[in-house]
């Protein structure tokens, strides 16, 4: 695994309750409490699911592309083509997904 992927993986796995496992189509899949946050294929492609309104904003702002296989879905793709320079953008996309999936403190019953 390249330095960029090791760096991304290290950052994402430092967040509470995040795990990594092999993705069914190759690469590494990140999960939060058993729900997929997204995955990285090889050393060049990141795929993440979002609600359509967020997906549309990410695509229209140029922060991500429509999914490479399912372009009409809520999934986005991010092509890693600048090497280490892409790390902050990839981590930010995973952070956005993490924030969507993590339990809200006010919803947790004590």
List the helices and strands and how they pair.
Elements: H1 3-13, E1 18-22, E2 28-32, E3 35-41, E4 45-49, H2 52-60, E5 65-66, E6 75-79, H3 87-101
Antiparallel strand pairs: 1-2, 2-3, 3-4, 4-6, 5-6
Textual characterization of the structure:
This protein starts with a helix and ends in a 9-residue tail after the last helix. Helix 1 runs parallel beside helix 3 (87-101). It has a 6-stranded antiparallel sheet. It is 32% helix and 26% strand. Strand 2 (28-32) and strand 3 (35-41) form a beta hairpin. It has helices at residues 3-13, 52-60, 87-101, and strands at residues 18-22, 28-32, 35-41, 45-49, 65-66, 75-79. The radius of gyration is 14 Å and the shape is globular. The longest helix has 15 residues, at 87-101. It has 110 residues and is an alpha+beta fold. The model has no long low-confidence stretch (mean pLDDT 90).
Core attributes:
globular; 32% helix; 6-stranded antiparallel beta sheet
Task: Give a concise summary.
32% of the residues lie in helices and 26% in strands. The protein is of the alpha+beta class. Helix 1 runs parallel beside helix 3.
